[in-house]
Amino acid sequence: MLQGMDQSEFGQFVAALWERQGWQTQVKNDDGRTFVAVQRPNGGEEGLLWAIPDGEIGGQQVQQFATLCQQYEVSESAIVTAGTISDHAEKVSQGSGVELLDGEGVARILKQKEWTDLAEEYGDGGSSADAASDDGGDSPLDQLRAVGDRAGSKLSGAFGGASVPVKPAILVVVVVALLAVGVLSGVSIPFLGGGGPVSAESVSPANSTTTLSVTWNARVTDTIDPDEGDGKVYPAPQGKQFVLVSMQFENTGQGTVNLTKKSFKFRTNGETYSHQPLAEHDGLMGLEMSPGNYYTGWMVFTVPEGSSGTLIYDQNATEGTVAVEFTRDSKLAVNVSQR
Predict the structure, then answer these.
(1) Distance of alpha carbon 145 from alpha carbon 15, whole angstroms
(2) GO molecular-function annotation terms (predicted)?
(3) Of 77, 107, 127, which closes a domain?
């Protein structure tokens, strides 16, 4: 399986996974560690990945990698492993800006994106599926299929009250089974999420009456899960993806700002998209912000799958003219907060 790759193979595999998303990649080995530098074409957004083939990722590794990325001023970073991630690592990552993708998440990507050929190509020394089948069908692709078949046969018992095994060593048993019946729909690759990069466009009209400072961060995803405990998720429509944006607002001017959902839009491929409301979750609330006031909110946009785009402020949507200064903070948590 993926965990059978050596360090060199896994680094090449991670690079190929990001290349499928339109990034340029370069694998670098440093002091026994494998990194993958990624960049959007034409000198665009840059990122650094630490590819770790097996084991459990700990909080100290996350902190070390975060420090390294800060030294080199890397804006986007992620640790990708075929192993597991400790609770401490998850906690440290929340404040470090380092995103985490474990073996279970990699398997979900391969299954849903129909990219299991990558596991076949780079796993087991690059052996073909036919050659692996002669040895008992042990190629990553064969095992992904076999795991799905075995897990599917257990579903009736699992959903009838019996428990589904969830040991970390079982890379894809539960995930593939749930995907097969549609319980899980959607997957996000760190700072990719199935789509292109997100930017924001500041505006400074000469006749502006006040200034709004917006600290923001965004991610692209196929599903939104506001509350992991209630079993409810919002899947993106067929051929679409969500752009989820978290924003912190401050009125730094002298006048009042009428803050509304319709003021913020997402532009991609010459089209402009308005906020996508979610049932039972309000997101950005409409309000008037006096000078010096703060507010935190989020918005969701539904756009064509694979799109890259820009968050914009629509002056025509509200009364008055406002100068808007967007500043991205990659450490700002991007989620649907409960209200």
Answers:
(1) 23
(2) DNA binding; endonuclease activity
(3) 127
DSSP state of 128: -
Query: Token pair for residue 1?
Result: 């399986």
Domain range for 265: 198-328
- CA dist 33 and 281 (Å) reads 43
Q: Mean pLDDT across the chain, nearest whole number?
A: 74
d(CA 207, CA 225): 41
Is 182 part of any domain? no
pLDDT in tens, 166-181: 222 222 333 333 223 3
In angstroms, the Cα distances linking 201 to 73, 198, 242, 314, 323 are 22, 10, 19, 11, 11
Say how many domains are in the chain.
Answer: 2
Task: Kindly report whether the global pTM for this prediction surpasses the value 0.85.
Answer: no
What phi, psi does 169 have (nearest 5°)?
-65, -20
Domain containing 86 — which CATH number? 3.40.1350.10
Question: Are residues 205 and 311 located together in one domain of the fold?
Answer: yes
Out of 102, 127, 152, pick the residue that ends a domain: 127
| Per-residue pLDDT tens digits for 133-160 | 334 444 434 443 443 343 333 333 333 3
At residue 198, what are phi and psi to the nearest 5 degrees? -115, 135
